[in-house]
Write a structure and sequence with these properties.
There is one protein chain. The chain has 337 residues and is an alpha/beta fold. The chain folds into 2 domains: 191 residues, Rossmann fold, CATH 3.40.50; 102 residues, Rossmann fold, CATH 3.40.50.1100. It is 36% helix and 16% strand. It has 10 helices and 11 strands. The strands form 2 sheets. The chain has a 7-stranded mixed sheet, sandwiched between helices. It has a 4-stranded parallel sheet with strand order 5-4-3-6, with helices on both faces. Helix 6 links the parallel strand 7 and strand 8. Helix 5 packs across helix 6 and helix 7 packs across helix 8. The chain is globular. It starts with 14 loop residues before the first strand and ends with a strand. Bound molecules: pyridoxal-5'-phosphate (PLP).
């Protein structure tokens, strides 16, 4: 197969069964990390850019700017390189060093903001930085994945349709929440299609998106220190928060038991499946969306020193209980009326 550009390689039909992950039902991953930019964000980046180009708001001389925790930045940097566009990517110290190197290698300007916002995260600082740059430069255009409906649409017309076409409606679908584009898109399309799937949105403890208190988070991808504008708590999905310690334990356990190095968000949604296992009927088909693979996390989630310094030695040691009976630090939030 010959593709026109790297960004044209999409891998929407790849699913991996995690045999015996939880006894009694099938756990499957929709693997999004196998395209050339290594994450689900390639779909988001393509639509953000195409929408801006088609609507005419983006003039040929415009340079782009966007806030990213890593994966969207890599995808946009790849697209911009092949289209001859200039992009500035604004990220923070939680971004994996490899992701920052990756964005730079693709020719993007990368700005790392270091001041924490009032919720102890960096998102508001990143956005304030972008607003200041926009005020000073009329040729700069902000794609704004947190407020742009193209983000949701990339998943309602992309991810959700791929699931129904290639996997069929799962009984349960677990989706991590960063900007919430993936979750909102899946909820929208599954409801429109009348799919009987129970959808669970999974976020990191310390994120404010579901209305919980702000707290320190160190793993990029999930969570926000300000609620994304596109997030709607429609009542059509269940909400679960997972502690980062469980994310790390689950990532490491999956690597050892299944030979698959998954990214932090994938560990988080898998931890949520274990947490809800008593609610999931035997024989169910459960699907979790895996936004990226684990190679970008070798210096963090999979690095003993990094984990020990931040979470303690008991988290750094590999789990031994196959059924994850010690994964208890998970909070299920009551559904909104
Ligand atoms: C690593 C990782 N986790 C989680 C997500 C969640 O996605 P969203 O921003 O659509 O909520 C993404 C999105 O690409 C991601 O790259």
């Amino acid at each position: 197969m010959i593709y026109d550009t790297a960004a044209d390689v999409l891998t929407g039909d790849v699913f991996i069964k995690l045999d015996g992950f939880v006894p009694g039902f099938d756990t499957n991953l929709k693997v999004e990390g196998l395209n050339p930019t290594g994450s689900i964000k390639l779909k988001t980046a393509r639509l953000l850019l195409e929408r801006a180009e088609c609507s005419g708001v983006l003039c040929s001389g415009n340079r782009l700017i966007e806030s990213t925790s890593g994966n969207l930045g890599i995808a946009l940097a790849s697209l911009c390189a092949s289209r001859g566009r200039h992009i500035t990517l604004v990220t923070d110290p939680n971004a994996n060093p490899r992701s920052v190197q990756y964005m730079k290698a693709l020719g993007a300007d990368v700005v790392v903001v270091r001041a924490k916002d009032q919720n102890g995260g960096y998102l508001q600082t990143r956005i304030d930085y972008i607003r200041n740059r926009l005020a000073a430069d009329p040729d700069l255009y902000w794609l704004n994945q947190y407020a742009n409906s193209a983000n949701t649409q990339a998943h309602s017309t992309g991810t959700a349709q791929e699931i129904l076409r290639h996997f069929g409606p799962p009984d349960w679908l677990f989706v991590g929440v960063g900007t919430s584009g993936t979750l909102m898109g899946c909820v929208e399309h599954f409801r429109k299609a009348g799919a009987p799937t129970r959808i669970v949105g999974v976020d990191a403890e310390g994120s404010v998106t579901f209305g919980g208190p702000a707290g320190t988070r160190r793993i990029p991808g999930l969570g926000a220190s300000r609620r994304p504008e596109i997030f709607r708590d429609s009542g059509h999905f269940q909400k679960v928060l997972v502690a980062e310690t469980d994310t790390i334990r689950t990532c490491r356990r999956v690597a050892l038991d299944h030979g698959l190095l998954v990214g932090g968000s994938t560990g988080t949604v898998l931890a949520a499946i274990r947490a809800l296992r008593d609610q999931i009927p035997e024989g169910s088909r459960v699907l979790a969306i895996s936004p990226d693979l684990g190679d970008r996390y070798l210096d963090t989630v999979y690095d003993d020193e990094w984990v020990m310094a931040r979470f303690g030695s008991d988290v750094a040691e590999a789990e031994t209980a196959r059924n994850g009976s010690n994964l208890r630090e998970v909070t299920e939030l009551a559904a909104q009326p």
